[in-house]
Amino acid sequence: xxxxxxxxxxxxxxxxxxxxxxxxxxxxxxxxxxxxxxxxxxxxxxxxxxxxxxxxxxxxxxxxxxxxxxxxxxxxxxxxxxxxxxxxxxxxxxxxxxxxxxxxxxxxxxxxxxxxxxxxxxxxxxxxxxxxxxxxxxxxxxxxxxxxxxxxxxxxxxxxxxxxxxxxxxxxxxxxxxxxxxxxxxxxxxxxxxxxxxxxxxxxxxxxxx
Length: 210
Hints:
Strand order of the largest sheet: 2-1-3-4
Structural class: alpha+beta
CATH topology of the largest domain: Glutathione S-transferase Yfyf (Class Pi), Chain A, domain 2
Helix content: 40-55%
Shape: globular
Oligomer: single chain
Largest sheet: 4 strands, mixed
Low-confidence stretches: none
Order of helices and strands: EHEHEEHHHHHHH
């Protein structure tokens, strides 16, 4: 398989975590978002939306959008599971993942921030926008996840796959994470887990060395 990715993309990061947790081999194909490679004709011919991640399967089929890719991985490689067995608990886990993936991450996506700049907002206003939406989302996550272990138990799952990249983004934007002890507990556990370490932006081949 080939994963079209960018080291600092949080949606790519979550797919890398899922792949690593599943123990699946993949070849990374870096797409440099800062240099506009996602808009190049060669890439948009592959992925018309011009975004990462995209996963090319061994048979050539291309999958796009991190939720769909992760759902595919869960279906074809069910062990170790990213979702619990019981239906209501699965819905709780999916709810936290969707909170991050649908309500928080899109609002600080680079395309959104560039649109705000084009509308005349300065960097101070944009930083307040980012801090507001990330802070509001993490405050909700803090109340929704469990009081021990990872987000919902002793083993990492789908909610953790979404949360850890969001925390990386929060740190990039200088968000104070001290108000979220449960979230920080999960972050500390993930920092020791080999799959999360392997998926971290700093461990990627396209990450800057300086």
